[in-house]
Write a structure and sequence with these properties.
There is one protein chain. The protein contains nine helices and no strands. It is an all-alpha fold.
């Protein structure tokens, strides 16, 4: 598929899909959520197996406060790339934002299963445990997060 894209869209090593994803990133960073979603959707139409486009669109929905749609996009990204620690972590954040701490904890655990060095997953899982009143687990996760990334000690 990549070879076909390069043959059909030569030049700079870019394809309409990567152009749409890049355009979406710029628009999301500029707070233009509707236009960012449209760019990521265009990329997905061109390449429905593009897990990164689903993750990016999910992050855009999450930043815009549409957690349901964010979760749907992260779930599709996970289906396409079941080993993506980032997709599990991001979906965990969306669940956390909805106060669904059990699902957030599960997703942070999945993220850590795929990348045990993901300090922020320990940190946020610790926050989720604290919300559930599980202080010992919360403390252990926060300590592990700070051990991996000392910058988290100030949060």
């Amino acid at each position: 598929m990549q070879l076909l894209k390069r043959l059909l869209w030569p030049g700079r090593g870019r394809t309409p899909t990567t152009d749409d994803v890049a355009r979406g990133q710029v628009r999301r960073e500029g707070g233009e959520y509707g236009r960012a979603v449209a760019a990521f959707t265009a990329a997905i139409r061109l390449d429905p197996c593009n897990a990164a486009a689903y993750r990016s669109r999910g992050l855009t929905h999450e930043e815009a406060g549409d957690y349901e749609q964010a979760i749907a996009d992260y779930t599709e990204a996970i289906r396409l790339d079941p080993h993506s620690a980032d997709a599990y972590f991001q979906r965990g954040n969306a669940y956390f934002a909805r106060d669904d701490f059990d699902r957030a904890i599960d997703d942070y655990g999945q993220a850590l299963a795929h990348d045990p060095t993901l300090a922020l997953a320990y940190y946020y899982r610790g926050l989720a445990y604290a919300e559930k009143g599980q202080q010992a687990r919360a403390k252990a996760d926060r300590e592990r997060a700070v051990k991996l990334d000392p910058a988290l000690s100030g949060l």
